[in-house]
Amino acid sequence: MSISRRGLFRGVAAGAVAGAAISGLPRPSYANQGLGPIHLDQNENAYGPSEKTIAAMRDAATVANRYPQKEADVLTNTIARTHGVAPEQVVLGCGSTEVLRMAADAFLDSSQNLVMASPNWGLIADFARNRQAEVVAVPLNKEFAHDLAAMSTHVDSSAGLVYICNPHNPTGSLTARTDLELLLKRLPSRTRVVIDEAYHHYALSSIYTSFIDRPVDDDRLLVTRTFSGICGLAGLRVGYGITAPRTARLLSAVRLPSSLNLFAARGAVAALGDAEYVKACAERNASQRQEFLNQANARMLRAIDSQTNFVMLNTGCSAASVVEHYRKNDILLPPPFSPMEKYVRVSLGKPDEMLAFWRVWDQSPFSKMSMPQSKTGLVQP
Fold first, then answer.
1. For residue 294, what are the domain limits?
2. How high is the mean pLDDT of the chain?
3. What is the CATH number of the domain that holds 329?
4. I need a labelling partner for 243 at 20 to 30 A (CA). Which of 44, 85, 340, 359 fits?
5. Cβ–Cβ contacts within 10 Å for residue 268, how many?
6. Distance CA 225, CA 136 (A)
7. Pair (174, 94) in one structural domain
8. Regions of the chain where pLDDT drops below 50
């Protein structure tokens, strides 16, 4: 197979980074190579989509002059077959973000509150405020997971929507399926629940079970998924929700027409059919996640046990300062999540990128401030 000039230079650059990481030489700046900084800030799949998915998107270019309704219908039917539901239960979106926006528009107003955990990924809160709804933020429990008992105390007739991200962003923690089922039973009849399963494929714990793969008969429930993570399609913005037909109709009524583009639809169909790639990505992620925890442990740093493609690391100091230090060294991390002001969320990248992450840590003033290791030798939150 021939290699383009651009591909050759990218390969050389990647090799230089990995070699520098091992030898201890200064890491060449990605910015100087024209490749930009290392992104460990947005929970993306650093390896990108599968070859089958890329081929499907490449073929889509031949019909880019056509509107994507046919492709959207094919994707809807493929999702329905994959999950064993009716097509009428599937709601497509420009990323699962749009499905969350639809939920806020359909079920919230100035008299209906949104109940969610804190800290949390914040866009649904912004959507709620755009509807003049109050956002009730409930602190996580001591395991950095949803405190469902505390959340229940804030759910009354004014609660229009409860948002659960499971596995949780930004902590990577899990909330047990049995506990979520109890919450559903206790909710008022008019309160709807969104369970965001954006990181579903990365969760390996026995306490986790998807609400799509093992559904419950409750038309108040909306489960969202995205192709942005494990399928490597973050740039195409494609996601979906599964819910009861009546709820799906309410959501579709506030959907932006033709929000899903042809390339995204074709790529998503191919990604759904490439189970081997998804499995390989999940296994690789589990291995790299463990290696990250090993590296943190070796430096006597504590991290929250994660079931995602990112890890919440306790830096023991100002997370904002750590983020700025990494930015100056061409590595992007997200801003701190209040009130966890000493934690940084680190997305898992390729091995050379993680080597660069740890070198920047080791060369920083923060490395002298690491907390002592637990007596068990395990990584503890």
1. 29-48+276-369
2. 88
3. 3.90.1150.10
4. 44
5. 30
6. 24
7. yes
8. 1-32, 371-381
- Whether 116 and 135 have beta carbons less than 8 Å apart is answered as yes
pLDDT value for 214:
85
Structure confidence at residue 222 (pLDDT): 97
Query: Which of 272, 307, 340 is the endpoint of a domain?
Result: 272
State the number of CA atoms in the 13 A half-sphere of 185 facing the CB. Answer: 6
Which tokens go with 133?
A: 């709804």
Q: How many CA atoms lie within 13 A of 23 on its CB side?
A: 10
What pLDDT, in 10s, does the model give residues 282-293? 999 999 999 999
- The total domain count for the chain is 2
Give the pLDDT score at 275: 96
pLDDT per residue as tens digits for the range 108-144: 999 999 999 999 987 999 999 999 999 999 999 999 9
Contacts of 172 (CB under 8 A, 6+ apart): 199, 304, 305, 306, 307, 308, 310, 311, 312
The long-range contacts involving 114-117, CB below 8 angstroms and separated by at least 24 positions, are: 114/159, 114/160, 114/161, 114/162, 114/163, 115/151, 115/154, 115/155, 115/159, 115/161, 115/162, 115/163, 116/162, 116/163, 116/164, 117/146, 117/147, 117/151, 117/163, 117/164, 117/165, 117/168
Domain final residue, candidates 243, 272, 301:
272
